[in-house]
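Task: encode each sequence below as structure tokens.

Item 1
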Amino acid sequence: MVSFEGPSHPEGGRGPGPRVRWRARGAVAAVASVVLLAPVTAIAGHMGGWTHDHSSAGVPYRPHGYNDIVRVFGQPCGPNMQGAHVWWPHINAPWDGGYQGHHPYIVRNIVHNIRSHISAAHNEGAWYYGQYGGVCKQRTGGSGYSLHAFGAAVDTNTARNPYGQCSWNGVGVNGVAYGTYLPNVWRESEAGHNFRWGRDWCDPHHFQYATGW
């Protein structure tokens, strides 16, 4: 059993209760939990030994509309909202790393296709602080539950890209301007990892694995 205590989100909300626990079922699930909990490390050589996983396991079906989101992810603020854990290097401040909870449905895509992609390219400096996952909260500027409440959204580089800003500030933790490198790894139209970018509605730090909500 893996336990995780989620930090508060800058737009409000916390996980359901002080701790959320994920119970791995069987030997395969237990091994998977160990893999997901390991921090991503640099791979020797530029992109050496690493390839995308664009199979249905690596980039699964992306739901559209509220009913389809509930069918895939379950009810908002449910037990899978923070059901699997990913190490992030800059949560509440530069180099203040820790684990964030996400729905297991999208974790292979996050860990293998996005985190490992950036690490293999030696571009870890592109990250900046304000990195959040599953949080039981309402939608900012709207009604109903946020996709964070399903564990289906990730925020990153929030300190440089606050809600209401309609552009992306790509300056990373190392002070280098990376342009839209990070969003291009996340979003559907570039690397094909199928996350929808919130810049389209002036929420540039937000990447969600669903549409129509």
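Item 2
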Amino acid sequence: MRQFDLRRVISRPLSRRVLEGLLPLSLGLGVGTTLVGGAIAPPPAVAYLILETVELQRQPADTYSSFLTRAQAIAATTAQRQFEQDVLASEVSITVLGRNNGAMTAVLRLRVSRHDWQRYPDARYWVTYFSSARMLLGFPQSDPTPEPQAPPPNSAPPGETPEFPELPELPELP
């Protein structure tokens, strides 16, 4: 065990004695401030992706176009609901599964960030179609498959909403 020697301490310069005494104090205050600050301040928000799957039953009078129109509407409604219910969600991915006579397959997926959805809340911009769905669900091949629309370019100056390009009209339901 080390002996305390008063002569050694006194022989050191005053500035060194002061610094040696302040070092433990400053370290203690720094750690204490960090611990208290962490306890008071909330943790930073973490944005995340919401994955959801929705099933859609084929109706007897459905054409492939009408079925896809319903699938897009369901995906858009689900995306909007998820963004409204969960303020931390930064992105949603909605997969619509089609069902017909016991067969089930992915028909489309809508994946969009909150920022893009607020700017362009139209599912046709953000949807990806699965081409095998028509055959797997038993739809005839003569009905045309819609192509996904490209998102509009950001041509407006900051702070202004850009113009939406015109989307082609979907066929009306019978």
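Check on item 2: The mean pLDDT is 77. The first strand starts at residue 48 and ends at 57.
End of task.
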